[in-house]
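User: quick one, fold this
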Amino acid sequence: MMVPISGRLPDDLYDWLATTQMEDAATVSDKVRVAVAHLRRTYMGDSEYIGALNLYRDLGRSTREAVAKLEVSEQTHSEVLAAFFEHVPALMATLNSAQVPSVEIAKQLESQLARRAMQLAETLLRQAITSQAAAFDGHVVRRHIAQVKELAQLIPQSIT
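Assistant:
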């Protein structure tokens, strides 16, 4: 069931809404529904991981699409940005969907987040092995790795 509403928008917001492309929304009325649904998802969070993951992937969609267009036009690919597009939404979704009623569940959340963060770190470290990372800026990882490398060298060899 749909409930009609009435409201007033400043000209700049209406112009933005009218000209912005939104998936599954052609009319301004459709776009208002999509925008309110998105606001609700953002405000309420999502207690289910896949729903939260979709929310955070949606939030980064325009940037991901812009990068994809650049990759096509420049005939290159950034593994560095691809790693962030994969891992950051998953980290946020894990946090957003977490239900933490006990220390045991908090430990599980901690483990999930640490595992995912280490996967991202591993991916970036792999990009530091060669002289040029697979990125728009081939030196971006090496420029930021010195402190991580120093800390990693201090980890005792006995840790497995």
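User: anything notable?
Assistant: Residues 60 and 109 are 23 Å apart (CA to CA).
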